[in-house]
Prior knowledge:
The complex is a heterodimer of chains A (188) and B (423).
Chain A: H1 9-15, E1 35-38, E2 41-43, H2 59-66, E3 71-75, E4 81-82, E5 96-100, E6 104-113, E7 126-132, E8 140-143, E9 157-162, E10 173-177
Antiparallel strand pairs in A: 1-2, 3-4, 3-5, 6-7, 6-9, 7-8, 9-10
Chain B: E1 4-11, H1 23-37, E2 48-52, H2 56-59, H3 64-71, E3 79-82, H4 88-101, E4 107-115, H5 121-129, H6 138-141, H7 144-159, H8 163-177, H9 191-196, E5 199-201, E6 204-205, E7 214-223, H10 224-230, E8 235-244, E9 254-255, E10 273-274, H11 280-293, H12 298-301, E11 304-306, H13 312-321, H14 330-335, H15 352-356, H16 360-376, E12 401-407, E13 413-421
Parallel strand pairs in B: 2-3, 2-4, 11-12
Antiparallel strand pairs in B: 1-7, 1-8, 4-7, 5-6, 8-13, 9-10, 12-13
Helix pairs in contact in B: 1-3, 4-16, 8-13
Amino acid sequence: MPGKEVPSGKSAAKAQTKPRYDKIKLPETDEGTMVFNLDPLIIKQHYAIDYLHSYAEDSPFFAGLAEGKLRGSECIKCHYRYATPRACCMQCGKKTKWIELPLAGRIHSWTTCYFGSEAFLKETPFNLALIEFDGINTLLLTRLIGPTQEEMRVGMKVRAKFRRNSKFDPTDVYFVPDEPVARREGAV
Amino acid sequence: MRPVYMISGGITKFTKANPRQSFRLMVKESFDYAMHDVPKLRHDMIDGSVVSYFSDHFTRQLMAGIMATDFLGLCPKPNKRVEGGGATGGLCFQAAWEAVASGRMNVCAAYGFETMSHVNTWKGNEFIALASDTNFDYPVGGFYSGYYAMMAVRHMYEFGTTVEQMAMVSVKNHKNALHNTWAQKHLDLTVEDVRKAPMVAYPLTLLDICTMSDGAACCLLASEEVAAKVCARPVKIIGVGCGTDAMRMADRPHGNVILLKHEEPSWYKNLKYPGVHSFRAGRMATKLAYEQAGIEQPLEDLDFVELHDAYTSSEIQTYEDMGLCRYGEGGKFIESGAPALKGKIPVNPSGGLIACGHPVGATGLMQAVFAFWQLQGAVAQHNNGDGAIQIKPKKKSRPLRGAIHSHAGTGTYVTVSIMESTQ
């Protein structure tokens, strides 16, 4: 008969005892699965990672923030000067050296965010601004603290402030107005 | 390089969430649609494929590309993943072009997908913002709408562009999509509706910004010989261009404009370029594609453009990068009605990303599929008989011609491809 083995000799005797693994069971736990929907079956999966993030060649910038210093880069060949540091020049590809940036500048552009990524939702509304500095070719992205959306404007004089208790992230520096602030007249 | 033709395309209907299909099944649906449209092409004539999806975080499945490929029965033939942020789909399209142009393949399938509904919108915004510098940009308040808002503010400052002009882009693209059954959103809006929508990042409201989507798209590219054999109305790809720029918007130089053939240096004497108001990568991609395709006067030589309008402001910026108007005149260009469906050069007749959705890895391929149907004169055939958005040739002296434009990051990767009817 198909599907039925015919026992013979020694193996015939074994087949009559219970299988060896019959009593083995996977331990049961109380942890369940959060289910959102049955058709199609949608469940919750948690996804979190602690990441060992090295600032590597950018480290001196973050260390500098703790000392109240703003550090940028200058290309050793073409002398292009960067407000946001980078180890290699975007213009010519050569290496850069560290330079110290002025602690005062102007708003090059700005926005007020009312929504955001999950990590920053609780901080809304907040202002983002790109800061320009005299003698420096590129910009720095930062939080601009103080003015409301109606008070922000391109060209506003601003100055850097630093957290006392450093978090060693780029929000250790933030900018505030360095001039009287009033309701803006134009659109930007 | 050999001439390359698009012989078919397919998409799934993009939706906010499609939990009934995995990414593999969505890709399969778009592939089957494309195969159905070109019945003379046998499955075994496909020599290999390229697959695109943007974020491993959204997919939560590494090497997802091969899972789409094995669903299509294309193993053990060559395949690779192409990724470049928002331009992932455009890069994938051009990778397939390269495979055929080089002679490596006679038929190459290009397909892409994204499943963005697996996290809530705020988490999704976080995943997208991880495509900005995680040392200097993301931790400050990483949010792409915020980045684009700063570009829009500078565009307003430099050129006097208004929020109403941006809103007109949203109104135009949503109106076009009323005649596109594939669009994710069908909204009949006014400028006032756009401005009264919740503010996301000044000056951009919820209706200035595209939504997240689930979806897939597929394009089949072939050599001239195969195209002639299997396809009655193949579409020729006559130019491809790609440009790049630094990840950090803050690093953009303030130098001279890269000129297109029809432009004069005197137009831009006082303009510091690209700054944060223009996309140097978009200009470079345009220049290379136009040169290859022989486009000298884009307004005359093109009949329509499908461009990456993730934001209304970036559509205005892109008019300028693509030379549809001068730098600084993008706001006046939309106001003039030139990019409207019946205007001088219809832009996003499909409704663009704003109305059709933006499942990142599929988006650039979706644009190619819409352009393909336009150039075949087959819009109504794929659109429940509605041919309202079908573009007619501007000139009888040359074939119908369109450009597609795919764009990543704050303008980090951009592709432009020019396609032409063979009828």
